[in-house]
Amino acid sequence: MLKTFAARLAGASFAILCVTGLNAGATSAADLNALVWCDHSDPNLLKPFEDANGIKVNVKEFEGTGGWAKESSRVQAVCDWFGRMDIYKTAMEEKARGATEETWVTGDVAERLSALIGGVIWENPYTCRWASPITYVSGDDAPFLIMHGDKDDVVPLDQSVAFHEALKKAGVDSTLQIVKDVGHSFPGRPDLGEPVVEFFEKHLGKGSKQK
Hints:
By secondary structure, this protein is mainly alpha-helical.
């Protein structure tokens, strides 16, 4: 599925960088530095997270030294496929249903979230909040295309719905496409690459098509 989709984007003259799943290599709060950096975050909101974890967030050093200092690193358009956009909400739901550390740390998704946060998620609410994309929604965000299957049993559909609503409330150009009768990863639906190509062509412009 991903290869088919990548080939379709490449055929439309878009460069491809595919990041799948959660960053399981982030094993401590300090590893979240680059993940939670955002140039329009309110320093006062970030302070509890910084104090709790002994790190400094929202520093310009995260831009790197790649030789492109005059070019903005802000993205121009975003396509989100079934992303977990509010880890804090997940944490509170797990706590409410009475999950324990023993039950939480079993299973692929749970292990990845625990590795990302650096512990049981409901015991690390600040880290969950600052690791969640929904925390950083603001009116100057790039346009979004959000796609999510209504049969997804890995990431709840309400994650995408809530994120879309937050973007719209902030005045961001956001489109939510709920794919009927499809689960996680859109199995057997290579046609779903077409609206993504159209979205990027609309906001980024058309390139020279490969022959």
